[in-house]
Amino acid sequence: MDDHVKMECGAFGAVNFSEDYIFPTLYWGMRAQNHRGHQSYGFLTFNGKFNVYKGLDLIPKVKKTEIQEWLERLPGSLGIANVRYTTSGGRDEESMIRGTQPVIGENEQHRFALSFNGNVVNTTQLVNEIRCENPNFSYDCDLELISRKLLKELKSGKDLVSSVKTCMKEVEGAFSVVGITQNGELFAFKDPYGIRPLCSGCSADRKICAFSSETVGLNINNLEHNFELKPGEFVLATKDGFKREQLVNSGKKALCAFEFAYFARPDSKMNGKFVYEVREAFGRSLGREYADIVRRCDMIISLPETSDDAAFGLHEETGLRWERAIRRHRYVSERAFILLPQERYATIDKKINILDHKFQGKKIIVVDDSIVRGDTTKVVVEKLRKMGAKEVHMFITFPRIIGPCFYGVDMATYRELIGSTRTPEEIAKEIGADSVNYQSFEGFVKATGLRREELCFGCATGDYPTPLANRLAKWMREYFEKGYKEEGRIYELPDLVQNRLGK
Ligand code: SF4
């Protein structure tokens, strides 16, 4: 539970072939996935023209008295939606609204709308390419790069499928995209490595078809989960069902492993398993790997809510009591936080309630999903010590994060990562814990039911699924070790990095 780690986006799209309003389906499908991005949201429907409504913060509640207003604002039986956390573009209010998806791509002949989850890696190359035709091009969201690329291909005379295929080959990064054509067709596609999830589903009568980042977007609409899009696949939703085409075959799958540990909702299904079941297996695996520590401890606690299932698994495996002594303030949203550095205790207190009288003289295992920057963990350990804990052992379900993510998770630099330069023993010292115990890769992989080569572990191994990300990671590491200060998404500035390193 690191307060500052965010996913970039969640996407949803749906069509109602009986031509009823699609907005209610879009609304619930996206609201079920608000955890994937809470800085902005956007809805777009199609009724011969594109109708758009965007806003900042969480998706608002729609009061009964406002339903008609929303339907008039967003008419049509086809639509796409997005929730976003900004990892590209400016973070001021104006830039965030500009960068809010869906994005409309248009030229003289073509028009389409897109919503995506992901991040582009070869931004410099694409921006240079786009600027050959549009010298003043600037962007607030990576999806605009994909949109411009698609437009360029369509303009050259290719059809949509061929244009998407070129994008899959020439855009490097993670992109799970849902879109609408100017003819009112709903489509979706995934990058050749399938880094971000995207699934499809239909109503039992097959009148509604949808694409969703996570299965919870289907569940909330009572839609059946049909299939997870394959890497490099293009899918069109038609009255006769989904039309699937494999456009690019990279021969590799690299689903983000961090989805299982942290991002995905526990009740979503990935690779045929509920995420909470995978997390329980993480806990069991930790129990087996660190049995000697478990034997000498008095209780397990967990940082709600992404670690609760793993704590339950650890409890089941070992029989050690799981004390539910940390609770989340249920109706306090992220937006209410005070984020001034001097108020770090206040920040934790506004998020969770740690019940102090439970820890006096106790040896405690704290289960958490990850340690990214370490600042949150440090504060929690400090608090437990002040409350009288005798020993504090961290059990972490995701292996040690040692490098940045290039694919849509807000961990952009080596400098910010506590694990990039420290061993588990050094991290324990830094955060004041008695020990820090990471789950092994073997334990993690086994719990997911996937093969290791089907998962991206780039941030934990330094081995990324795409070639430019690997090169950039190497340069950034060198840049960092030479003492240069990394800034934000420094991999967007390869010229600077290359010049300084003399590459
Ligand atoms: S680098 Fe890490 S966070 Fe990023 S996609 Fe890979 S596993 Fe996920």
Can you characterise this structure?
With 503 residues, the chain is α+β, with helices and mostly antiparallel strands. It has 3 domains: 9-252, Aminohydrolase, N-terminal nucleophile (Ntn) domain (Glutamine Phosphoribosylpyrophosphate, subunit 1, domain 1); 273-463, 3-Layer(aba) Sandwich (Rossmann fold); 466-503, no CATH class. 32% of the residues lie in helices and 23% in strands. It is built from 18 helices and 23 strands. The strands form 6 sheets. Strands 3-2-4-1-10-9-11 form a 7-stranded antiparallel β-sheet. A 6-stranded antiparallel β-sheet has the order 5-6-7-8-12-13. Helix 5 packs across helix 6 (160-170), helix 9 (275-289) packs across helix 11 (308-318) and helix 17 (467-481) crosses helix 18 (494-501). The chain is globular, with a radius of gyration of 23 Å. Iron/sulfur cluster binds next to helix 16.
Topology:
Layout: E1 9-16, H1 23-31, E2 40-46, E3 50-56, H2 67-73, E4 78-84, H3 93-98, E5 103-106, E6 111-120, H4 123-133, H5 143-155, H6 160-170, E7 173-181, E8 186-190, E9 199-202, E10 208-212, H7 216-219, E11 224-228, E12 233-238, E13 241-246, E14 255-256, H8 258-263, E15 269-270, E16 273-274, H9 275-289, H10 291-295, E17 299-302, H11 308-318, E18 326-328, H12 344-351, E19 352-354, E20 363-368, H13 375-386, E21 391-396, H14 424-431, E22 435-438, H15 441-448, E23 455-456, H16 458-461, H17 467-481, H18 494-501
Parallel strand pairs: 14-23, 17-20, 20-21, 21-22
Antiparallel strand pairs: 1-4, 1-10, 2-3, 2-4, 5-6, 6-7, 7-8, 8-12, 9-10, 9-11, 12-13, 15-16, 18-19
